[in-house]
Amino acid sequence: MAFDTSVSGILAASADLGIIGNNIANSSTAGFKSSQAEFTDIYAASLLGTPGTAIGQGVQLNSVTQDFSQGNIEFTNNSLDMAINGSGFFTLSDGGVATYSRAGAFQLDRDGFIVNASGLQLQGYPTDDEGNLVGELGPLQLSTALVEPKGTGEASITANLDSRDLPAEAWNPDGAGGALNGFAVPPVLPKSDQFNSSTSLTVYDGLGNPHVLSIYFVKGAGENTWEARTAIDGVEIGGATAIPFEDNGQLGEANKPLLLNIADWQPLNADGAANGAAAQTFSVDLSSFTQYGASFAVSTVQQDGYTTGQLRGLEIDDSGVLFTRYTNGQSRQQGQIAIASFTNANGLQPVGDTSFVETFSAGSPTITTPGLSGTGLLQSGALEGSNVEITSQLVRMIVAQRNFQANAQMIQTEDAVTQTVINLR
After folding, report:
1. Chain-wide mean pLDDT for the chain?
2. Residue 401 exposed, middle or buried by CB count within 10 Å (0-12, 13-18, 19+)
3. Among 327, 367, 313, which Cα is nearest to 138's?
4. Cis omega before residue 257 (within 30°)?
5. Comparing C-alpha atoms, which of 266, 286, 264, 263 is closest to residue 275?
6. Which of 28, 44, 112, 229 is the most buried (most CB within 10 A)?
C-alpha cells in the first residue's frame, strides 16, 4: 500500500511542479494570472464509514485555481493597448463564442475591427452614424472613412470698435457706386480711407472648401453709428448692416440679436466661377460688439463649418469610450468598450491565449462598462503585466521538489522493507 501512497505523492508533486513551471514560463505574458494547485487526501471508505484506525491512501489533485489579483500596469505607445485597473474582463468574440481575457493588447484588422493577436474581436457598444451609442453588445469597428464636410451655418464675432475713430469717407470702392470685386479686371479692392477697421474669418461651403469672409467696419457721421460691409473671397455680398450703439458703448437689447445675414451666397473657385457647391445662407452674430474708447480688437471668432477630415488619432478614456480625432479638428465617439464580471471568477475555464470561457460554476457574466458594477477603470496605452511573483514561485518549486524527493525516498524505503521480508528464512 505504501507504494501506491508514494506514487500518488509523486504524481501530486509532479503536477505541482508543472503548475509552477507554467507560472514561471508566463511571468512576462501580459494579462496572465498565476495558478496554484489544491490537493486533497484519499481515504478508503465503505457504506459504514471510515474506521478510526484507517490509514490514508495518498493524495490527489483536487483543483487548479487562478489568482486574479492585479498585475502591474506597464505603459506602451499604442493607444489600443488597454489595461483594466480593477476587476473585470475584456469581452471577446471567437466566431460568435464569447471568451474573456485580461490581456489588452489590441490592434485594428483590415476591416477596422478591434482585435487581439488571435483575431478575436473586442466587444462593446457601437455607435450609429450620428455618434450615439447603440444599446446592443457587438464588435467594435473604427471607421477610417473621411468625415464629410459641413458648410458654415452660423458664425459669431466678439470685438470692440474704437469710439475715438473719426467718421470714414463714404463707402465707394470703385468710385462709381460699385461693390468690391476681387475678380474684376482690374480688381475692385477696399480703400483704406473708406473704412475704420476690418477683420476676417474662414467659412466653408457645402463641399468643404474654405473661403475668406472679410468684414469692414465704417463709422458713420451720426453719434454711435456704424455699419458693416461684407465680402467673401473679395466679392462684396449684400449691402450695409447698421450697428447702432447706445451711449454706454453697448448694443441695446432692442437691437439684439444683431445678425449680419449672408443670403444665397454662391461659392466661387479661384477663377471666380461657381465651384459646384450649392448656394448657401448663413449669419454672423455681432451681438457681443462694444464701442469703447479703446483700440479695435477682436476677442473671439467662431463658426460651425469644417472641411473634410482624415483620421488622425484615437483616444480611449477610463470609462472605455473611444474618441477619434480628425485633421479638420473634429472628433467622433465611435463606441464604448464592455467589461464582464463574474460572481465566481475562479470558476472560469482557461482555454489558452490568456483567455477564459464561462462555466456553470462561474455563473453568468454581468456585462457593463468600465467603472460600473464594481468593475475597474481602463488605462489606455498600457498593458497589465503577469501577476506571477518569481520569488514566491521559486520557493514553491523547492518545496515541490522536496515533496517529490521524499515520496521517491519512501518508495526506496518500502522496497528495502519488502526485500527484507523476502529474504527471511
Report:
1. 90
2. middle
3. 367
4. yes
5. 266
6. 229
DSSP 240-256: -EEEEB-TTSBB-GGG-
Is residue 209 classed exposed, middle or buried when 0-12, 13-18 and 19+ CB atoms within 10 A define those classes?
buried
Is residue 180 predicted with pLDDT exceeding 80? yes
Alpha-carbon gap, residue 357 to 100, rounded angstroms: 6
pLDDT band at 49 (very low <50, low <70, confident <90, very high): low
Q: What is the pLDDT of residues 193-227, one digit of tens each?
A: 999 999 999 999 999 999 999 999 999 988 899 99
Q: Domains of the chain by range and CATH?
A: 2-69+386-422 (no CATH), 73-146+311-384 (no CATH), 154-303 (2.60.98.20)
Query: How far apart (Å, rounded) are the C-alpha atoms in residues 266 and 270?
Result: 13
Cα dihedral sign, 124-129-135-138:
negative
pLDDT at 51: 65
Residue 417's H or E segment, with its range, is helix 390-422
Distance CA 237, CA 201 (A): 15
Predicted pLDDT of residue 424: 77
Helix/strand/coil for 124: strand
What is the model's pTM? Answer: 0.74
The grid coordinates of residue 115 equal 482585435
Preceding amide of 186 cis, omega within 30: yes
Per-residue confidence (pLDDT) for residue 9, from 0 to 100: 85
Contacts 24+ apart (CB under 8 A), 331-335: 332/127, 332/131, 332/143, 332/147, 333/127, 333/131, 333/133, 334/126, 334/127, 334/131, 334/140, 334/142, 334/143, 335/124, 335/125, 335/126, 335/127, 335/133, 335/140, 335/141, 335/142
Per-residue pLDDT tens digits for 310-353: 988 889 999 999 999 999 988 888 899 999 999 999 999 999 88
Q: If you count them, how many residues does the chain have?
A: 425
